[in-house]
């Protein structure tokens, strides 16, 4: 949630006099004031991202955004899992159902899957989060949006910064950043390298990131920005999921097969993006983003069989939009329209691996292509000085195809095409200059990814029994700022999803099926209170009910009325912060995650848990240079808990033999210094 101090700082004196808030949000595609936005939108600024944080995973920055649930912080082979309002919970790795973009470059593929291992939090300057129906303007994978903006060369004082971190489990990280401005051109570059052995066996990881942005003002109304990002991940081991008996025996162990097969992944990725903004060619403003990304990936899964996977991916596209302010029937109208054309091409291979780790044959060689062409439009009409009506729509043409290059077992080529229309309508009313109430309703679709189209019958091509899921989202909310000290953000949501896509496992591999229907109802509350100049409390509470309807699971169990697995009904995160003079700070964070179930049949309840964390730091001025010192402790009370649960895993085994659980780390420490010169 947006810190009250920053929110208040962005209320200009003249803005207060005329009752306008100048805090602008752009993630709903239509740039507008926060208090004119009929959606659950949260903004996280640079201090929350950086101050005393390791900057390893997004949960560090976004924990106090209501409605977000994070898992898998410590398994770098599977990466962080994120869900909001139930979207994204099914993913055993990566993220589904949520749109991720960085500096206008999509990190979500046309087929709906997202990887976030290349996001550089050392460069991040701002994160906007949409929860709910307003995200439909991004099409497939539209349960929410994370819009990340990295720093420009003119966002920071010119100079350089060197960071060195160290901590438990042989954690080491170094980062260097430099930026400057020359005439109409600004530039910034960040390079980092991280090593960690991990708290479990077979969980070592190494990762290097490079992120750079160069912006050039062609004139006062035109600007061109180039972004380059590179990921080098030579090692990310996967210890596998444990059974309860294995957890009780040794929670830090890896599975036998994970160690024997040396399970894990290697990744190399390079992304180049160009953004052109022009406020002069037309009455409004034109923005064009184009990008190209190449990803080289190889993975050994923690079991024998068809478990070695590799692909070579090319992902590219162009997005354009035009925004203008005009009038309709004498009332102010702000509108945006645009188009997206994105293409994904994966050259995929899969190999058969023996229990001794030997490759005994190839089971897959195919090219997977996904092309998405979409047009969208959205407008805000000021019905009165306080009441705004918003209406938006998007049309998507999504084609997924498989070209089989391994024909000795038959031609398994095929294609699926989806044509979907999504829409959103909302009302926003300003009760006062800094208080708003809104209501929104929207539809969304989410196609299965290529991975989720895998055919459990053993045939290639697409599983003919899996269809896209479609959602009807309804939301009402209020937000505001009392005085300059207390901010609040309350949202109530009700979602109906038809043909919910859920995972199950067969012979060690994950496959997917449609549930009849799911219902999701809940409330999200965010509060921020500046108790004094130095003290601040932030809290985020989510209470929700996620329910399966009209569904029989793969073992024949009637799951009607059961909870959707992997989703706790209660999440509560709070943070107490102290800010002293000259950069001195301290923060105490406590987190509660309620219990949930590990499978559709609700036979295995995962216990709730509390986590406590703390961090502190100080700054020392050395002439024109600054030395920042910081340290932190995670899981202060050394709580036993599961940092990830592989939902519906090993569904073909007896419940007690299913490897659902990835134990979280015990008490861990980190410390570091940053030299700004």
TrEMBL record:
InterPro entries: Beta-barrel_TonB, Beta-barrel_TonB_sf, Plug_dom, Plug_dom_sf, TonB-dep_rcpt-like, TonB_rcpt_CS
One Pfam short name: Plug
UniProt keyword Iron present: yes
Record motif TonB C-terminal box, residues: 660-677
One annotated GO molecular function: siderophore uptake transmembrane transporter activity
Cell compartments where the protein resides: Cell outer membrane
Keywords: Cell outer membrane, Ion transport, Iron, Iron transport, Membrane, Receptor, Signal, TonB box, Transmembrane, Transmembrane beta strand, Transport
GO cellular component, one term: cell outer membrane
Top-level taxon of the source organism: Bacteria
UniProt keyword Nucleotide-binding, yes or no: no
Membrane topology note: Multi-pass membrane protein
Annotated family: Belongs to the TonB-dependent receptor family.
Protein name (database record): TonB-dependent receptor
Organism: Marinobacter nauticus
